[in-house]
Write the structure tokens for this entry.
Amino acid sequence: MKEIVVISGKGGTGKTSIATSFAVLGANDIVIADCDVDAADMHILLQPKNSISEDFISGELALIDQDACTQCGKCFDVCRFDAIDVNNGIHIVDELSCEGCGYCARVCPVEAITNIPQNIGQWHIAETRFNQPFVHAKLGIGADNSGKLVAHVKNKAKEVAKELNKSFIIVDGSPGVGCPVVSSLSGAHFVVLVTEPTVSGLHDLKRVYELVKKFHIKAGCIINKADLNKQKAEEILEFMKEEEIVHLANIPYDETFTEAMTDCKAIVEIEDSEVKHLIIDAWNKVKELNK
Amino acid sequence: MKIAIASGKGGTGKTTLSTNLSAYLAEKHKVVLVDLDVEEPNSGLFLKADLHYSEDKYKMIPEWNSTACTLCGNCQVVCNYHAVLRIMDEIMVFPELCHSCYACSELCPTNSLPMIAKKMGELKHFKTSNFDFIESRLVIGEEQAVPLIKQTQTYVDSKFSDDVIKIFDSPPGTSCPVIEATKDADFIILITEPTPFGFNDLKLAIETMKELKKEFAIVINRHGIGNDDVNDYCIENNIPIIAKIPNDKEIAKLYSKGELLYDKIPEVRIQLGSICSYILDIKEKI
């Protein structure tokens, strides 16, 4: 079983559209995991059914019991996150700033502070409209610990893939290079980088690839909107050559991308489009590289 | 005044709007643009600016000093992040998991875990011909963006007075880095595209801003693609749409080269004008 992670560094390069197309092409030999947990979109195209949902509990927040509190201020003194507000001498926790370290509770002389476990979102296991196993999640608003939810979604997808003996897990990752991305890369077998020939596309590709290298994972790259700026596309190809990243496809600027999304379809479901064949070729390359 | 430019979905035009709006506003006002998307900072790619000042930014992590350590294991007990572990007769620290809460260090009975500085990023302060630009970038492999965003805002607060218009280019998503980048803002502009993904993620972003009790308005980018869902939703819920930037391949081409649009595409200038007057009205009220 091979885990294929689709990421991009920069947002909006077509990551989810490509990952969903791979999912469609993977037919009955895959499990799909949407690990962009704080802006998950795959479900819009895959329209899951028979969904089973569970809360995800992770991390804690401090709560001060005002009846027990002597307002001594020790919690305020130790908090490094400016999460203890003092209003007219009353100490209260600023929930947005509290990172749940629990230090305040440990130093409170009258044990007035409790750490409350947090429900930071929900995860779901379902079937796509193509009857494929699909694990996805929704992080609670402003929640911490997105990396842990990503790891949880991936682990569930792995369990299902093993149980049903599927060859691939397709993981849709999040933008950036921070904890959710690190979490989606951990344990992966192959990375598909989706980029665009723009100054930001290349800049962000380089940064995210630096992270991929730390994990020693083989990578391939798709240049989306490749004809938008031929010179930038060339620069990306050069970068790929230097870094031995496999070139998977150059996809031209094509409104089919948005049209397919607007119809809630994967691009590969649009008959006779040039893009469809390019993505089929790319998927075949990915399969070949992960035999 | 602080204005944060955010979006649920990535790639909807946060950086395009931040850079062009800053340049446009700077024609008549004092402006500082701050790139808080520290994982992938892009604003600087669109600006001609000279470096004015730079500094490394650090986070504090514990470092084990074995001399006096009795291996009591209290550090492991007090760390809620599993960043400190006692393994056999050694204390191991996992810096990427550490939140710098100091509990292990200050509660150690033998002071065997002093805090040391570890570089997590770089802050750079640039000057363009008519406005200031500040960018922070996270070291690759460092997982937490929040501490760097926080330190960058502290720098901005120390250097610029309240009357300067501060534009924060925020990270995508709805999780902790976005909260950190927007929670001190007086006003939030949410930029989206009128597609199913854009709409879905916009609703998440709106929910986030409501949770933060922030005043916000919408800018629709690539107007003309997709469908009317974003527009209809905003009208139904009385959410102001303050600009619609057209879908135009010429804009995409200029963007790809790292060029600003406000002085080249007349329609963009008109839309920026509308955003600008909305912002200035709010500034009056503050």
The radius of gyration of chain B is 22 Å. Chain B has two domains: 2-58+120-285, 64-113. Residues 2-58+120-285 of chain B form a domain with the Rossmann fold fold (CATH 3.40.50.300). The mean pLDDT of chain B is 97.
